[in-house]
Amino acid sequence: MAKAKILTDLEESYNELVHKVSWPSKTDLANSTVIVMVASILMALVIWAVDAIISWGMENIIYRV
Predict the structure, then answer these.
(1) 3-state secondary structure string, the chain?
(2) C-alpha span between 10 and 1 (Å, rounded)
(3) Residue 10 lies in a domain
(4) Beta carbons of 12 and 19 less than 8 angstroms apart
(5) Has residue 57 been placed in a domain?
(6) CB half-sphere exposure, 30, CA atoms < 13 A
(7) Can you give the residue range of the structural domain that contains 43?
(8) For 40-54, what is each residue's pLDDT tens digit?
(9) How many domains does the chain have?
(10) pTM above 0.70, yes or no
(11) Is it the case that residue 1 has pLDDT exceeding 90?
């Protein structure tokens, strides 16, 4: 009986994946990829800048003492 339940669940999952999920077009996918890449680069630059400022500040504090 448990095996029949698993098969039913798999069949329902497959049907939902094939018939109810809306997949993005290639254009939408490409646009989303570009947005994610740009956002990732911007975040990396912000983190780098914060790290550089904190490092500069710490070096000034350590070497002045």
Answers:
(1) CHHHHHHHHHHHHHHHHHHCCCCCCHHHHHHHHHHHHHHHHHHHHHHHHHHHHHHHHHHHHHHHC
(2) 15
(3) no
(4) no
(5) yes
(6) 3
(7) 24-65
(8) 999 999 999 999 999
(9) 1
(10) no
(11) no
